[in-house]
Amino acid sequence: MACLMLMFATPALFYALGYALLANAYTGSANRLLQWVFGSGAAWFDIETWSGLVTVMVLKKVSVIYLFLIGLFRALDASHDDASLVSGVSQAGAFFHINLPILAPALA
Questions:
Q1: Is residue 104 part of a domain?
Q2: Which keywords are on file for this protein (predicted)?
Q3: Is residue 56 a contact partner of residue 19, using CB atoms and an 8 Å limit?
């Protein structure tokens, strides 16, 4: 949880530099490691593309969304899940048909 809170305090410049050092196509640590392990000369990740930009932004935003939603999911009553499982509904079905409609006002 403390690591997720650190995402708020980290300036965008340090965050961008960290991912650039990790996934740069030429000198990134992750690319170097994967090239060494698999013996390939091609870069595995290229952070300087649109897909790299989207991946970095999604990774940062997912942690923020997780922090906002964890309280809502902890406040759910477990008896709804138990009743749905006894009725033969899968866990995914219980999530989409019971829990998500209960949380819909808070998610809007």
A1: yes
A2: Membrane, Transmembrane, Transmembrane helix
A3: yes
Alpha-carbon Rg for the chain, nearest whole angstrom, is 20
| Local structure of 90: helix, strand or coil | coil
**Largest alpha-carbon pair distance within the chain?**
55
60 falls within a domain: yes
- pLDDT > 80? residue 91: yes
pLDDT band at residue 96 under the 50/70/90 scheme: very high
Q: How far apart are CA 17 and CA 56, in angstroms?
A: 11
State whether 63 and 24 are in the same domain: yes
For residue 65, how many other CB atoms are within 10 A of its CB?
A: 10
Full domain range(s) for residue 98: 77-108
Residues 33-64: tens digit of each pLDDT: 888 888 877 888 788 888 888 888 888 888 78
Could you say which DSSP state residue 26 is in?
A: T
In a domain, 100, yes or no: yes
